[in-house]
Amino acid sequence: MNSNSADKQIYLTEVGPRDGLQNEKETILTEIKVAFVNALSRTGICEIEVSSFVSPQKIPQLADSSEVFRKIERVPGVIYSALVPNEHGLERALEAKVNKIAVFTAASETFNQENINATIAESIERFRPVVARAKQEKLPVRGYISTCFHCPYVGKIAPNAVVPVVQQLLALGVDEIALSDTIGKAVPMEVRALLDAVLKQLSRERVALHFHDTYGMGVANVLAGWEYGISRFDASAGGLGGCPYAPGASGNVATEDVVYALRNSGAKLSVDLNQVIAASQFLAAHLQKPLLSRVYGARSSMNLSPGPSPSRRGAPKAG
Length: 319
What we know:
It is a single chain. This protein is α/β, with parallel strands linked by helices. The protein has helices at about 15-20, 30-40, 65-70, 85-95, 110-115, 120-135, 160-170, 190-200, 220-225, 255-265, 275-285, 295-300, and strands at about 10-15, 45-50, 80-85, 100-105, 140-145, 150, 155, 175-180, 205-210, 230-235. The protein has a single domain, classed as TIM Barrel (Alpha-Beta Barrel), CATH 3.20.20. The chain contains 12 helices and 10 strands. Strands 1-2-3-4-5-8-9-10 form an 8-stranded parallel barrel, surrounded by 8 helices. A two-stranded antiparallel sheet has the order 6-7. Strand 3 (about 80-85), helix 4 and strand 4 (about 100-105) form a beta-alpha-beta unit. The longest helix is centred in the middle third of the chain and has 17 residues, at about 120-135.
């Protein structure tokens, strides 16, 4: 374990409202999304990725991003961020008063073409004015790199394919890099190998890890990153998620599972696990499907109450 791992406060970004919900086929009411974000705001999570300002035709589920941002109850100290694909999306994000933006590319050329119809180089150029304008507005910027370990189209991705993308994003001026296991096939050995390569380019404090749990390795990969001194992780309440352009990918690693694993391994977290479970319970009632989180499932099977649910705190209910 890195000697500083246990001393660092964990910074969790809750991606359920964006990455978690974007793959749901049934339309989710705006009021439900707002209530979900409000519930997550009470958990002690550092950052909530609320939505995405992509074209409504591309991801209809997130077409109400501006309305969601307008209606949420913002808790002081919580960062409310959004995915932004281009200058038009940035304008919408600025109007919605987001606190932070994220741009996104990939380590796989094929995946990038399928996802955003651009080469990696073209996507970087597309982000150049977006990042510059965000900096003018004093907004922090995250750079997502998808398929850092495996690609659904071309297979395994070597660390030396990821490093040039990291370098290009850093040259643009992004503040942090999110290394993403988009289809959830990575194992801890691969996480360590990638970090060995990437940490030669930037400090640990500027790296975030974003894991999916398709093969059940999400929590193990989080712990591997934490042991390397990484303190920024993405997770999704209940294990919601997937990717419209990653065939076979299941949900993100569950927030409940990450909190439980890190806390019981000695990490410092400010997150209230019971409130995360309550937020997941609220959304599960509207999705009408089981959630993938192991901790959520264990609590449910033992019939343990996690505490007050969002609906008892005035959250709107669907008819």
